[in-house]
């Protein structure tokens, strides 16, 4: 809606100041053009830009809230499935392990989807974060090839994994690495020909990078379309075919690999196929398997802390039950719980726990207000507090780190990660008490 005042005209004047013989200013001499139309267009553009920015922010907020709402129940689904699979109470039968595996695979896939939608919003808002770690490329590729088997079968293509024995360790965010590889594998299957192949290989480059290449035997990309390939929502004409897609995968892949300090590239020949590659910076550390981390973390806790006490402040009953199930395995360490901040702070004063796990999104007094109150209370301000929340946005993590939390874990919390954090915090406390 253009809001130039009704009846008002705008002129663009091109002229010079004019003076009378005594040197008095009399006005401008020159030409003037009616610029009302241009002014109206300018105002219209400015208003459209403001409206687009507001819509974009509303979209990002909506996606972020949706992600939070979906992650919270997934925390219980994945967490309990992990507890069941670990067979703490009674070992599962082969058949039951198969069922639980399905829950974990389906739940993880759902989580990946949610993350992807959120990622796009984050990329648009320029607020994407990575958790860099040592990643063994060979095992991630193997996992991705196996996860992609339904899409290979659907498009009747065969994977050729030449990286089976690959031992290359790169520095990357493990979750995002999987996401990138899955995306390229899915494209290599979708834009392939029936009976074609998808070949995955890894090679060391001279400049301290490892290159992961995914080649297909598909339709290829015409030269004149190649400069459009990383533009979001541009499907290069695939939108007129039956091949499903959104056109954001490659744009997201490029943003993520570059944010991790890596590179992406491709070459393609029509009717011969395409090769997409990801270059990851090398990492010299060894990679631990998640199972090893859990066992290692638990034994450390057992050996150092016979009577550790942890207070969990959380309003979601399923999350509390999940934590209780985990702590059964960590005996003699004990867990006590409170379902709101006020009760939690009272319990902290009376029972003096070694550590507090504090949910951020509590009804009433939220986690940030709770930690501020704790820090003002001489009786309990020394107790380390770990924040737990389904909100994975960079700004909340930043706020938690600045707000006095010792650490911040996002839900769904991986049990291995939680045990590692508990182990680190309790060990630190043990050392400083000696
Ligand atoms: P989507 O696959 O969801 O459309 P992408 O961002 O992953 O989105 O890819 C953008 C476009 O690039 C695709 O729509 C397709 O036209 C083209 N493309 C991607 N990968 C390949 C490939 N391996 N072979 C041929 N064309 C491809």
UniProtKB/TrEMBL annotation:
One of its GO terms (cellular component) is plasma membrane. Residues 65-284 form the Histidine kinase domain. CDD domains: HisKA. Residues 309-426 form the Response regulatory domain. It catalyses: ATP + protein L-histidine = ADP + protein N-phospho-L-histidine. The modification 4-aspartylphosphate is found at residue 359. It holds the Pfam family HisKA. It comes from the Bacteria. Its EC number is 2.7.13.3. The keyword Transmembrane helix does not apply. It is found in: Membrane. It is an enzyme of class 2 (transferase). Residues 1-47 form the PAC domain. InterPro entries: CheY-like_superfamily, HATPase_C_sf, HATPase_dom, His_kinase_dom, HisK_dim/P_dom, HisK_dim/P_sf, PAS-assoc_C, Sig_transdc_His_kin-like_C. One of its GO terms (molecular function) is phosphorelay sensor kinase activity. Keywords: ATP-binding, Hydrolase, Kinase, Membrane, Nucleotide-binding, Phosphoprotein, Transferase, Two-component regulatory system. This is histidine kinase.
């Amino acid at each position: 809606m253009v809001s130039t005042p009704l009846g008002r005209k705008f002129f663009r004047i091109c002229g010079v100041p004019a003076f009378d013989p005594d040197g008095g200013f009399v006005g401008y001499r020159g030409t003037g053009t009616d610029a009302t139309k241009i002014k109206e267009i300018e105002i219209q553009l400015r208003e459209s830009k403001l409206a687009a920015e507001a819509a974009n922010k509303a979209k990002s907020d909506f996606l972020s809230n949706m992600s939070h709402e979906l992650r919270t129940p997934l925390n219980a689904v994945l967490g309990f499935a992990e507890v069941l699979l670990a067979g703490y109470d009674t070992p599962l039968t082969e058949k039951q392990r198969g069922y639980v595996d399905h829950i974990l695979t389906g739940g993880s896939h759902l989580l990946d989807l949610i993350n992807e939608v959120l990622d796009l919003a984050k990329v648009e808002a320029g607020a994407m974060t990575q958790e860099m770690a040592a990643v063994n490329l060979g095992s991630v590729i193997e996992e991705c090839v196996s996860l992609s088997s339904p899409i290979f079968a659907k498009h009747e293509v065969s994977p050729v994994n030449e990286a089976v024995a690959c031992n290359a360790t790169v520095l990357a965010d493990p979750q995002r690495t999987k996401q990138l590889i899955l995306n390229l594998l899915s494209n290599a299957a979708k834009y392939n020909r029936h009976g074609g192949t998808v070949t995955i290989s890894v090679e060391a480059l001279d400049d301290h990078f490892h290159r992961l290449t995914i080649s297909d035997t598909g339709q290829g990309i015409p030269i004149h379309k190649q400069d459009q390939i990383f533009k979001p929502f541009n499907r290069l004409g695939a939108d007129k075919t039956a091949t499903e897609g959104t056109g954001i995968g490659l744009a997201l892949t490029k943003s993520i690999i570059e944010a991790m300090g890596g590179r992406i590239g491709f070459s393609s020949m029509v009717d011969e196929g395409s090769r997409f590659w990801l270059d990851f910076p090398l990492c010299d550390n060894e990679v631990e398997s998640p199972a090893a981390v859990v066992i290692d973390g638990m034994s450390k806790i057992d050996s150092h802390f016979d009577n550790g006490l942890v207070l969990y402040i959380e309003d979601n009953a399923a999350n509390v039950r999940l934590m209780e199930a985990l702590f059964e395995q960590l005996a003699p360490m004990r867990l006590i719980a409170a379902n709101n901040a006020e009760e939690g702070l009272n319990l902290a004063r009376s029972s003096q726990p070694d550590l507090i796990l504090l949910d951020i999104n509590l009804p009433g007094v939220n986690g940030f207000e709770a930690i501020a109150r704790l820090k003002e209370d001489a009786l309990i301000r020394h107790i380390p507090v770990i924040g737990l929340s389904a909100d994975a946005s960079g700004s909340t993590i930043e706020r938690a780190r600045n707000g006095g939390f010792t650490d911040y874990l996002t839900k769904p919390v991986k049990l291995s990660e939680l045990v590692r954090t508990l182990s680190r915090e309790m060990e630190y406390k043990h050392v400083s008490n000696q």
